Amino acid sequence: MDYLREIIDLMNSQANKDIELVSKAFTFSESVHSGQLRFSGEPYFIHVRETAKILAELGMSSTTIAAGLLHDCIEDGKATREEVEELFGKEILFLVEGVTKLGKLKYRGVERHNESLRKLFVAVSQDIRVIIIKLSDRLHNMRTLEYVPEHKQKRIATETLEIYAPLAYRLGIRKLSRPLEDHAFPFVYPEEYKKTKELLKTRNKEQFHKLDRFQKSIKKVLAKKNITEFTVDYRMKTLYSLYKKLARKDWNIEKIYDISALRIIVPSIEDCYRVFGIVHSTYRPLPGRIKDYIAFPKPNGYKALHTTIFTGYGNVVEIQIKTKQMHQESEYGIASHVGYKESVVENFSWIKKLLPFKNILSEKKEINFEDVPSWIKDLVEFQKTSGLEDEMRSDFFQQRIFVFTPKGDVVDLPINSTPIDFAYSIHSSIGDHIGGAKINGKMTSIETILNNGDIVEIVTKKQRSSKKKWLDHVKTASAKKHIKAAITKTN
């Protein structure tokens, strides 16, 4: 089989210069990894080849695909940095060295991986492509984890589940986050994996049959309403995602309504809302399950309309309505915008600031964070702080909630946050001078747990009011940092 041709066929650009670059990197990488074997006994080159293939599937540029082919050539191959720079240029050397640095980070458990996390986050702030190459590299490693010595398997899988998969999710690259989770799941939680798999098996056959009938039914309904440009398909919840939900629902699979979801893809946002109205006028929606992620996107940029309806076939099903672009972005996230330097869409203009095409070798890169999403700004801020590993995990890798200012601005917080977290997320001065809080128009304790969709208003007072006991009622690391600083000033 012509593996190089397979990669080239997957590439977005078929320009001669792009094909030549990838072909050159393919040949060079094959030669420098000659004679090396993996734990499986296969030639080592297979790993970098498969990493490049994943990058091509994600729609990455020839530069990134070439860097994927070369990502281990200095560390594990026979190449020197001087050779790579001479043959492939400074930009590719920068990417290869970035991935090499990340490759040295190993998960050592809670006590020992603070510095690893901070370095990982610095890499995100410098060039998002480094992370995308590393995530692709990790995905292929997870596909072959069974061949790794047993004593290493759980460490690698735990690192994947706690660091890499959540990061892929926050970047919106579900094409990477889902398989990373599912490959790691059986190694980290073997008993829970078996239990989840058995539970799902009892539902799958019945689910597929009902979904198929409902899919035909909804196509007829849309056609009758003169909706002609649409596609309908369905997706099943991944095992790890199902496990997390089962754990929250006392392992009662009957309480989970989105094991399967029907996707309706339409041309425009107007069509999304039109189809949404048709669905609700034809089928009875389940109360509390209607979500408008178009008006209020998720922190990772995900957009769609979600509703759960009674199908009339004795079951309920989640329906996701989105445009083709929204679907593309929901699967590929940031990767769908960094394939080429020139093709960053307006909504993701901040990505340009994470791609150091100028001064690639400069030690310090000044990044204008004006348009950068708050969670990436926070990651960069956190790498300057030590001893905050637990807060970092709770801030960035756990379930999030949306709350609103009275003006309708969206504030993204970790689950179980309080008005104190909200106040500090708006501004440290507001947090330091918090006097009270209104939630949905009613005065309430500033230690109240916030819920998704709450409208929060902070009442301030002139004198500083930061108290040590607040530390027991906040979730965000930034709130803890500012409270500690305020307490130190007053002592």
Description:
This protein is α+β, with helices and mostly antiparallel strands. The chain has three domains: 3-185, Orthogonal Bundle (Hypothetical protein af1432), CATH 1.10.3210.10; 190-329, Beta Polymerase, domain 2 (2-Layer Sandwich); 399-490, Beta-grasp domain (Ubiquitin-like (UB roll)). Helix content is 50%, strand content 11%. It has 19 helices and ten strands. The chain has helices at 3-10, 16-32, 45-57, 62-70, 81-88, 90-103, 114-126, 128-143, 150-170, 174-188, 190-224, 239-248, 269-282, 324-332, 374-382, 389-397, 419-426, 428-432, 477-490; strands at residues 231-236, 260-266, 291-292, 305-310, 316-323, 400-404, 410-414, 434-439, 442-444, 456-460. The strands form three sheets. A five-stranded mixed beta sheet has the order 1-2-5-4-3. The chain has a three-stranded antiparallel beta sheet with strand order 9-8-10. It starts with a helix and ends with a helix. The relative contact order is 0.08. Residues 110-114, 340-373 and 385-389 have low confidence and may be disordered.
